[in-house]
Specification:
- It is a single chain.
- This protein has about 190 residues and is mainly beta.
- The chain has a single domain, classed as Beta Barrel (Lipocalin), CATH 2.40.128.120.
- It is about 10% helix and about 40% strand.
- An 8-stranded antiparallel barrel has the order 1-2-4-5-6-7-8-9.
- Keywords: Signal.
Length: about 190
Amino acid sequence: MRSRLVLLTLCAAALPVAAAAQPAATPTDAAAPAGAADSELELSPAEQAFAKAMAGATLDGSFTLSDRPDAKPRAERYDLGQVRKVGEGMWLIPARIRYGDHDVELPITLPVDFAGDTAVIRVDNLGFPGLGVYSARVMIHGGKYAGYWQGAGHGGHLFGELKHNQPADEAPAVDKPAAEKVEEQATTPPAAD
């Protein structure tokens, strides 16, 4: 099983020792601060570019498993909703996360730091319902994402592209759950000769 996020998820660094001692939070635990209305928040040019790049984007890429260095990278996909700043350094990133046999939608509030014009999404010991507890650092720059994820004794790298306006029927295939594949095979009539 592979664990990582984004965000998402999404990419680079190890789990801080302090976070390991704390119980895992969930994405909804980090709700928007009270009274933080969108109109009250001023965005720097880097934040404006990040919000524009991420809103409605599909992060289409791959992830690796550090405990399987010879394995081929596996497909992952994050379909994002309207990404917006909800407080000082905090961003709401609604995401549909798909990899392997996992497919979940979550409203995720995460800290985002900026190194110049490069956004770094931080995930620290965060519990994702149906997926597990993860830490990650994901850098967003120039229409690409890259980073490192870890959770439950394993980790790896993640990387890919931000894509916009990609119709579902043209979207790259994502591994379907085995049960879905079997159901499709059972309901698809044989081809006529």
